[in-house]
Design a protein that fits this description.
Blueprint (H helix, E strand, L loop, with lengths): L2 H12 L2 H19 L3 E4 L2 H8 L16 E4 L5 E3 L14 E2 L5 H11 L7 E4 L4 H10 L4 E4 L1 H9 L3 H24 L1 H7 L4 E2 L4 E2 L4 E7 L2 E7 L4 H9 L7 H7 L5 E4 L7 E4 L2 E2 L11 E6 L2 E7 L4 E3 L4 H4 L2
Parallel strand pairs: 1-5, 3-4, 5-6
Antiparallel strand pairs: 1-2, 2-3, 7-9, 8-9, 9-10, 11-12, 11-14, 12-13, 14-15, 15-16
Helix pairs in contact: 1-2, 2-6, 4-5, 7-8
Length: 316
């Protein structure tokens, strides 16, 4: 059965946001099938947000992360969460309370895997305890790092997401400008209705803030810095380029990260890239950070287009 058919009752109930989840699942599962993955068992919050539409899945305890998002090669994901209200995108029988007893989680994983063994299972970040749970639930399976697959799929945004991110960058930049003019309290008033994902830092010459709104993450970084370093980094970001090649040409102290729905993680610094040799695709949304400055760009066929202010405009 197609994902859209499985999600139809939820889409009717909750609207167009669930269509975004459907699109993400289709892209992720197509990549899984190309890579020969039978399932993904994920512990990272951004991966869970992308694959299952749930942004609050982390609970700190010794031995984490354990797999909290299960993505089959076809069909809907399952999530294990202490916050069921954050999982409104999924039918109730795919949302599960925290399983503090490891045996219970092993039993559930085995059921979701239909008792199969000898599978190819991808993970993002797991503790030794989390790895043992997977091995117990799917004996004889090959467990591999799926970071490259996740980065490839999650970095690339649809045209609607790019438009929404551009609007979000405009919103958060306006708030940052207000912070520079009138202080932190004024900036927080300007950010009303957005969920802060970092502690906002404001001084008379610099401001840094990131927010989540409508599921997307946008940021603004304004402050002292050399705009030429940012321009140099942006000029190196091209469709078809390898992350390792770009990293080799980045000026010292410049960092490139993924932004948007997920994969908000460092990708490249001077001489360092992870995943190595990842090919950048059209629609990839990237943040370039240096000194006290930051810009957001989307990669198009021939260039990197700014969704935020330019390096000259953020350098104060």
């Amino acid at each position: 059965m197609a994902i859209i058919d499985l999600l139809a009752p939820v889409i009717r109930r909750n609207g167009a946001a669930k269509v975004g989840l459907m699109e993400h699942l289709e892209r992720l599962q197509a990549a899984m099938q190309r890579g020969g993955f039978d399932a993904l068992l994920l512990g990272g919050e951004s991966a869970g947000q992308f694959a299952a539409g749930h942004s609050r899945i982390g609970v700190h305890m010794p031995g984490w992360p354990i797999p909290v998002t299960f993505v089959p090669a076809s069909g809907l994901p399952h999530i294990v969460t202490a916050d069921p209200d954050g999982a409104a995108d999924l039918p109730g029988d795919h949302v599960h309370g925290m399983m503090w007893n490891p045996e219970t989680l092993v039993s559930e994983l085995s059921r979701w895997l239909e008792g199969a063994s000898g599978l190819r299972i991808g993970t993002d970040a797991l503790s030794p305890g989390g790895l043992s749970l997977i091995e117990a639930a799917a004996p004889g399976s090959t467990i591999v790092d799926a970071t490259r697959l996740l980065a490839d799929v999650m970095l690339t945004k649809s045209s609607d997401e790019v438009t929404a991110l551009g609007e979000l960058c405009t919103f958060v930049t306006a708030a940052a400008e207000e912070g520079l003019r009138s202080g932190r309290a004024a900036m927080l008033r300007a950010l009303h209705g957005a969920f802060l994902v970092s502690y906002p830092q404001v001084s008379n010459r610099r401001v840094r803030v990131a927010v989540r709104k409508g599921g997307l993450i946008g940021e603004a970084r304004l402050g002292p810095g050399d705009p030429g370093r940012g321009e140099h980094a942006v000029a190196s970001l091209r469709v078809g380029s390898l992350t390792s090649e770009i990293a080799a040409s980045l000026p010292p102290g410049v960092e490139v990260v993924g932004l948007g729905w997920g994969y908000e993680a460092p990708l490249m610094r001077d001489g360092w890239a992870t995943p190595e040799d990842l090919v950048l695709q059209p629609g990839a949304v990237l943040g370039v950070r240096w000194d006290s400055c930051g810009v957001t760009v989307v990669l198009e066929d021939e260039s990197a287009r700014f969704l935020s202010l330019s390096p000259k405009e953020v350098a104060r």
